[in-house]
Amino acid sequence: MSDHVISPNPWMMLPFAILLGTIALAPLWFADWWAKHYPKVAFALGAMTLGYYLFGLHAYPRVLAVAHEYLSFIALIGALFVVSGGIHISVKGEATPLANVMFLLIGAVLANVLGTTGASMLLIRPWIRMNKYRITAHHIVFFIFIISNVGGCLTPIGDPPLFLGFLKGIPFGWVAEHCWPMWATGLGILLAMFFVVDSFNYRRAPKVIREKETAHEQWRFDGLASVFFLAVILGAVFIKQPIFLREALMVAAAIGSYYTTRKPVHEANHFNFHPIQEVAILFLGIFATMMPALDWLQINAAKLGDPTPAFFFWGSGALSSVLDNAPTYLSFLSALMGAAQDSDVQRLLATQSTNLVAISVGAVFFGANTYIGNGPNFMVKAIADQQKVRTPTFLGYVFRFTLPFMGTMLLVVWWLFFR
Predict the structure, then answer these.
(1) pLDDT class for 213, splitting at 50, 70, 90?
(2) Does residue 181 lie within any of the structural domains?
(3) In terms of DSSP H, where are the helices of 30-169?
(4) 96 to each of 112, 135, 139, 144, 334, how far by Cα in Å?
């Protein structure tokens, strides 16, 4: 984000609201029309906001900063998508509820090493395959809840907001030291909920089908070369200068992985570029149209309520559900500095530790609440849709899963730690 504060007209948040509304409702009401015309909607609404910032506010540095953020985002997401498409993990045996819980737990831990995006892209295809005889909406949604979001709350690598905090001066180990109780509580609640839901689903699947589908399967890992390219991408995340070197390395790793992957591996993964194309187009519109909302938040976050842990948890969390959670985290970090009248991060760690934990946990956890709250969410949905898995609509996701499951977990975490 640019250091220069922009004060947009609040009415200019309307294109962002319209884009969110169409993403939520158009696939439900006008599915065929949306499938054909979503690029036009995203480009048109994004162009309106960009035109206002360029020709109305003359905020050229702000637009350039957002363009860089978008390029970094799509380079990371795209590179991980391509590289993970070059890795095929075969699974063995039927996916019992307990086996699924263990897979999700391992994925949650792995998210702190590979990042939620890397872990999601690597594991979503094996997850679909191991549950293929009974795969349904709850498998995809809980995967997003746990591996794409909540799991990555222990390290700065885990989720983009925490990485931005690391770049601002928060020590690498501070997150794990202070956030592990919330991580363990939230993860434990979600895994218990999933086990109950998945047990009902498992008992409904005829045993003869389970045995037929899984009898021939063996554990197997194909695509060892792509593991090297995955390591290049993760290493590139930490490169800050010179500008665009990080993104260039990611793109180079993706190209290297694509051309060194054997055709049978891509075929086994049903690999094509449609999911990343959809994500790139929609998030181009989101990054452009959310500028007025983020800039308004930057100015007014400190005025929205008393600077208590509950305020920072629910405030940063609620906005991370519909805005990109990384800049939302930075906005609330700025609000915390303003409320404390201290911009020194080291002193904030000593005097505002609980508030800073509330911002961190809120940004990471609430990113699971919608498909657009965190980068990998929509990518997981796109891959699942490509493989003909039934996924909930935008509103179905919120009302059928977020409110009863994530909502309950978030209330418990608030009650225990931030009340």
Answers:
(1) low
(2) yes
(3) 31-51, 60-85, 97-130, 137-146, 160-167
(4) 25, 12, 12, 19, 46
* 352 Cβ neighbours under 8 A, 6+ residues apart: 336, 340
Q: Which domain holds residue 143?
A: 10-418
| Count of domains observed in the chain | 1
Gap between the terminal Cα atoms of the chain? 31
Is 4 a member of any domain? no
Taking the C-alpha atoms of residue 376 and residue 152, their distance in angstroms, rounded to an integer, is 12
CA 60 from centre of chain: 28
Residue bearing the bigger pLDDT, 2 or 6: 6
Give a yes or no: residue 85 inside a domain.
Answer: yes
Q: Does residue 2 form part of some domain?
A: no
Amino acid found at 188: G
Q: What is the pTM of this model?
A: 0.83
| Cβ pair 151, 116 in contact under 8 A | yes
What Cα–Cα distance (Å) separates residue 70 from each residue in 47, 253, 327, 396, 407? 15, 19, 12, 28, 30
What number of CA atoms fall less than 13 Å from residue 383's CA on the CB side?
28
**308: Cβ contacts below 8 Å, ≥ 6 apart:** 355
CB contact set of 217 (below 8 Å; sequence gap of 6+): 90, 91, 92, 93
